[in-house]
Amino acid sequence: MNKKQNSSHFFAWWVFIASCLISLVGFGLIVNTIGLFFEPISKSFHVGRASVALMTTLQNAAAAITLLFAGKIMTKLNLRWLLTFCFTAIGISILSLSVAQSLTHFYIAWIIIGICQPIAITLSIPVLLGNWFNEKLGTVMGIALGVSAFGGTIFNPIIGDIITNFGWRGGFICEGLLILGILVPTAFFLREKPNKKHHAYGKVKNIPEKVLETTGISLKAALKTPVFYALAFAMLALQFVSGSVQHISGHITSQGLPLTIGASVVSGVMLGAAAGKISIGFMLDRFNTRLTLLIYSLFGLLGWSGEIFFKTSLPLIASAFILGLGQGVCLVALPYLIREEFGAKDYSTILSVINMAGAFAMSASVYLNGLLFDTTGSYNFGWAINSAAFALSFIALFLTLKKQTTSQGLEESID
User: Fold this and answer.
1) CA separation for the pair 186, 209 (Å, rounded)
2) Which of these ranges, 81-85, 232-236, 348-352, 410-414, has the smallest mean pLDDT?
3) What is this structure's pTM?
4) In this structure, are residues 204 and 214 in contact, taking their beta carbons and an 8 Å threshold?
5) How many Å separate Cα 248 from the centre of its chain?
6) Which of 330, 332, 84 is nearest to 192 (CA)?
7) Domain count within the chain
8) Contact of 248 with 265, CB cutoff 8 Å
């Protein structure tokens, strides 16, 4: 019997592994290494960093617009083919940048990436894991999303070395081939939802899987609750923080330290984020939600403050690790809490709408931090904003989160 049960859960664990790969390459490579390209592209085209950073601003703006309807698209179309198409488009777009002759090419390519990114990377992991895991969701989501930080730790030194030795064009060739070689096959072999033969992992007090898919509240009902706006504000504030991570290597080089130190500091952020995302998922499954959020919000506040005051490599790397721990709030705790607060019924749509606020904030953050640097010659004001974002988002969530568990909410909605 146990053997049969383990076999029926095989696809749940395959989806978990696939989610880890999407996180490793999708977040770890595409999102977390782009800051390494800003300075060499700026020098190559003789423009300011704000002009180069505009490509990621456009990317995130396109992502924000796509998020308006991405959740609905994911419920209407076959997710396997949809993800395969999106990763193919992203890989080809990045590969094309190796022959770019103007900033316009960068802007167009990153708009295409921005259109595909919400479905392929931002929403796919929490939606897939939410479909396949009724138990240990916080833990598996934390591990899968935490892998992105390991990806950043691995890929930042590799891409930094390739840029140093072969130029930024070589860096884009490497990134494009990795996406096409890893993520496209991964998406092709995915399965979207459990069925009679392949079951989700765990049950919620013997509630059937078919019933679980329809429990919770709709987007329309969610819009009437204070916690929806608290979650949206927290996503907006903390995605603004996430956008500024792309400028950390520039912050380090602006202080006269070499790019290799900048890459090491970024790797410190990624390592901290890995530890933060994995541990916050574990803690959310087992401990008080408000206490967990307080601890990780303090990590974010203290870490960004350290980036303002420290000027040498080791303290900068240490504070980067600490601020990385705080990243778990945005990428793990918020998707988890959205599922906990509103249930499975309209999860992808609610998550999509709340992520839209974050995408607009991230698009503004990358550009505004570049503009602040061009204007003042320092990133310190931006880092102070990041510290405040952690404090304010915690206060908003503390005041609005409900105390009941998902299973209690499910039983009430079924009754």
Assistant:
1) 25
2) 410-414
3) 0.72
4) no
5) 17
6) 84
7) 1
8) yes
